[in-house]
Amino acid sequence: MDPLKKYRRQLRIWCNDRRLQREEDHYEQEFAARRLVLPDEETVRRYLREKFPLLKPKKKGDLQILAVYHHYNWENESLRPSLAKFGPVRHYDWYDRFNHQREREWHRSGKEAMNRDLRDWATRNVAAGKGDVIFAYLSGELISPAAVRELSCLGIPMINLALNDKEHFVGKIRNGLSMGNRDICRWFSLSWTSTEDALKKYCVEGATPLYLPEGANPEIHRPYDSEKDIPVSFVGQCYGNRPALIARLREAGIHVEAYGNGWPQGPLSTEDMVRLYSKSRINLGFGSVIGFSDAYCLKGRDFEIPMSGGLYLTEYHPELERVYEMGKEIVSYTDFEDLVEKIRYLLGNPAAAERIREQGFARARRDHSWEMRFERVFDIIGLI
Question: Which of 40, 141, 343, 376 has the most CB atoms around it within 10 Å of its CB?
């Protein structure tokens, strides 16, 4: 790497680390000073039942769901069909109408126009009896606190999903407002975060948080009957430490095929990606948050690869232990030497690798579908 680029990268990581540490220290101090307590699931359940005393649970399949998210590359294949198990889904995707603008235009006028349009859309549906709950995947980049507050006046439960609270709970500040979830979370009935570290932050900001990881859709992420003719594969963007690590693996004599934006072989379709999981003897994962030196979080592939029947080897961090039995259902590594050792062991011991693969597949199918996640959330609220 060019020395100047390396220095700038190191400086950026150092600045990000310092910012995140200050943020975490602030919320730890506020949480302790206010004598707050993380709510358990039963406490959240009681609070929401009191907040919506007239809510009558419906049978699964009868919920009228208003879904607010943009389909970037996985949402319509994971979120929408899983939501549809619970009832009709009316989807609001603003992207084609509003988000084609340049960033400056978006923040000057596009965001406000989109927020008005979203409020009108939701109001019409609720007034017509076509909205029992709003499920959103939004941030302060996309919606203002005032707009969320107005939506909360519709009188139906609102859930917001956040998958990047590790580094983006606050995020960038524009005109005094957070582009993350800091300033909007208090107006949602339930803030669903996949980042355990963020729970105290939500409490300090007056929100009702629930820690629940991502999932996968077994109708999409399923095994294929394929010969396992690829030793190691990785699917994901080419950035951060990924290209250097994969280059080192190849230098060590390990054949790795990499796909995604930035790699020479480019991205795969969803079907081809899932087929690749079955063709690979080992599917590689990264758990680190790019741009930070020591930040990790759960990823969608942590559930999609095992559910697709792939043997999963990923970077270790403690949250993995909440969702899998390490070494038995998935395998993790701590540094490059450990990674090489684990790859060589698994390639050289196919029976052991197959046992881990099978148990990871069974665990993902049993515990980690998006439908199961929604079932738990809707049950806690009292919708079903």
Answer: 343
